Amino acid sequence: MKSNFFKISSAVLISITIIVTFLYTRFYEYYNYNESDTFQVTVGDTFQIKLRENSSTGYINCWINQNQATGVTLVNEATHNSLSGLFGASGAGEIKTLTFKASQKGNYTIKIAKCPALREKKPCSEYSEATSSVENEFFVTVIN
Q1: In what side-by-side order are the strands of the sheet with 94-102?
Q2: DSSP of 11-23
Q3: Of 58, 55, 57, which is closest to residue 77 (Cα–Cα)?
Q4: Which pLDDT score is estimated for 13?
Q5: In sequence order, which residues have a C-beta less than 8 Å from that of residue 135 and are 6 or more positions away?
Q6: How confident is the chain (144 residues) per 10-residue block, as mean pLDDT?
């Protein structure tokens, strides 16, 4: 009897751990505003930056120095609901995942700004450091 209890308890604990790990990595592993980080990658590698975003405000995260960070390329941009949004909370925001590929050896900085692109109906490419304040900076070293 004790053996079955421990087996069931273990299975329940393992299941809870898996669910919590999934929820954390999917919904809480992102950079908040004013956070920075450093990446070291090899030419050809991809890496991701996940950012908190709330497009219902009309503001979205834009990569504003794309022309200067020539050794990294944005290869995919995806947005999914935050955990609150998943359960139907209005205005809960999203998580934006930017996937980059390292293409050339060097040191680069990816600068992200919260821009009124949706409110002003403009693409992110129309914003720059001169018109927007940098919210997040990511320092990328690309090696061979």
Answers
A1: 46-53, 94-102, 72-81
A2: HHHHHHHHHHHHH
A3: 55
A4: 79
A5: 33, 34, 61, 112, 113, 114
A6: 74 69 59 93 97 93 95 95 67 89 98 97 95 96 96
Q: Which two tokens stand for residue 60?
A: 């979205």
Q: What is the pLDDT of residue 4?
A: 78
Residue length, the chain?
A: 144
What's residue 86's pLDDT? Answer: 63
Torsional sign, CA 124, 128, 131, 137: positive
What pLDDT score does 20 carry? 54
Q: How many helices (H) and strands (E) does the chain have?
A: 3, 7
CA dihedral 121, 131, 32, 89 (to 10 degrees): -20
pLDDT for 132 equals 95
Please name the amino acid found at residue 15: S
Measured distance CA(28)–CA(83) in Å, rounded: 8
Q: Where are the extended beta strands (E) located within the chain?
A: 37-42, 46-53, 60-63, 72-81, 94-102, 106-115, 134-143
